Model the fold of this input.
Amino acid sequence: MKIAVLSRGPKLYSTQRLVEAAEQRGHEAVVIDPLRCYVDITSHDPAIHYKGQELSGFAAVIPRIGASITFYGTAIVRQFEMTGVFPVNESVAISRSRDKLRSLQLLARKGIGLPVTGFAHSTHYTSELIELVGGAPLVVKLLEGTQGIGVVLCETRKAAESVIEAFRGLNAQFVVQEFIKEAKGADIRAFVIGDKVVAAMMRKGREGEFRSNLHRGGTATIIRLTPEERSTAVRSASIMGLNVAGVDILRSRHGPVVMEVNSSPGLRGIESATGIDVAGMVIEFIEKNGKEGKTRTRGRG
Done:
């Protein structure tokens, strides 16, 4: 089987592990930079070109689309879908999960536990927005932020008003969320493939840091999920339409609450913490499910 790995970083751990896992199972894996692709959009013979040549013969594509290139990256995934190539995660699902506000609304509609979240445009409703999430301390989160960037813990009402005013002054889109104090700066990353959690770790921020991102110096340890946490992770990925996802969960006093559903979860942290060959499981999923033309959207979304 010939597999395309859409990634701008051929030397990144996750990219290398996917290539390695594919080759170990007898497949050919080709790393393709989505920004160096260009497409022929025709109804009778859609095509993708890369470095002057038309791409062909691929049975599946693994999108590793960074947040900064979501628009163009999902367009390339959509073109693969149009040519009948099986996508591990479909373009529509990636776009859905990258829109943080939309994803929260979709999860809430299906009854998934979430932190109390407020969103408003007008400056007239800052006080009401703060009260909506239970007052300070609270979290202000940029909708475009990744890896913990643009996430601010406001410990007082005055601080919250200042941060909200600053973000509005920059014309930035953001949400205000309740602060889950009982999580104590730790969250759970559940790695979902298909209809099950294949690995899970607890991430804890360094001393004095409420953000648990490993990129920000956090640490990770293996953890056993409760049945409710496992069900929440699988349901959240399914609601987004993702076959492969990293679901970030906080343990709150009223049960698990979902912070985010990631369509391109990193492999280094989860594999290092658990010792599980997650990359191999992704390839195994492709072997079992990857068939030409097997995509729900066929590029229409």
Observations:
- The mean pLDDT is 90.
- The chain has nine helices and 16 strands.
- The two ends are 27 Å apart (CA to CA).
- The chain has three domains: 2-89, 97-113+182-284, 117-179.
